[in-house]
What does this fold into?
Amino acid sequence: MADHPQDLKNATDQEVVALARIGREAAFRELVRRYERPIFSLIYRMVRDRELAEDLAQETFVKAINAVASYRPEYKFSSWIFKIANNATIDHLRKRELSTLSIEGSPHAQTPEAMDATALQLGTRDPGPLEELEARELGGAIEAAIGELRPEYRSCILLRHVEGRPYEEIAQILGLPLGTVKTYIHRARHELRQALAHLKE
Amino acid sequence: MHDLTPSHLSLDELDAWLEGALAPDRQAHIETCFECRTLTRAERVLVRRLDVMEHLSPSPGFADRVMAEVAIPDPFALRSAGRLWARITASRRTMALAASIIAVVGLSMGGSIWWSVSHHETLVSLESWVQTQAGSWFWVGLRGIVSNLLEHPWYDPVRQLLGTPGRIALVSAVNMMVYIGGVLLMKRLLASPGPRVAHAHS
It folds into this structure.
């Protein structure tokens, strides 16, 4: 049984979940380590507010950990946790009616400092000034265009192109028919093509 | 009259083209159709832009904050009193069931205590009879087992094998090693991996 942290890193999701189900704290931490970035990225790009995204990501992991006994191992763990994250985010968006957002930061931010604190931070490498400007312009334009999509289109396009999930898994995560998922993704790409048409290739 | 112009790419064909799995005749159509060529070019540019979007990181200490919020489930723990009470009071049926169980258990216990107190002498004589009978059955059983062992063909070789303290120690050591090996094997079998799944991007 994978007890050592290094063993946990090499274990499959199912093996780690099996250890989590018998109460191993290290296994829970490993699941958080594996999924904190994908889950946070998905939620952030849905709500575009860093603080809120962290709260929803935390809520997602807390729900998943508390419900790990009810997880059915025949499904992929990634699908299960993405489903929890998507449901939490969509519920929040419905409550707050937060469907279109600003790349510059949270629409609820009251001060310039709050806008900066909640603004999207792109990339981790260190490009040159011109490259940085172009990348920021391009990345910002894509992020902004995604932010303008309907929430259900946004979930689909992010799961497909940022997370690289197949259509079938997206349908399972979102609880939608396969044909609907394909239609949403094509419509989302159509809207994004139009929104980004002014950018150079 | 039939229209001989091939139709434009469908959405599924567009996906197939992005994955490099479009049929050759449809691929040839793209070369000759301005609309499809423009669409596929724009689609490829968009998908490339989407595919390079990076994962974002939550602020440091995120995992610690998550772990501080959860109680690690103990699979051997009893249900908490609060959850048990919530289940009992969930409906009239569960309340009636719980009341019935409490009544049956309470009446049984009360009846048992009352009978024990009022029939003390009967209980003492019953205890004495059980002790006598149990002692008798024990010795009869032990005698039967021993005589049965003595009649087995392997009894003499085993007796010779364990004839000296050194041999007994050796056989005990071998037995212990076999036992430990069995436990380790069971542990490994119980830890055998489930179906492999892909990891999330890190």
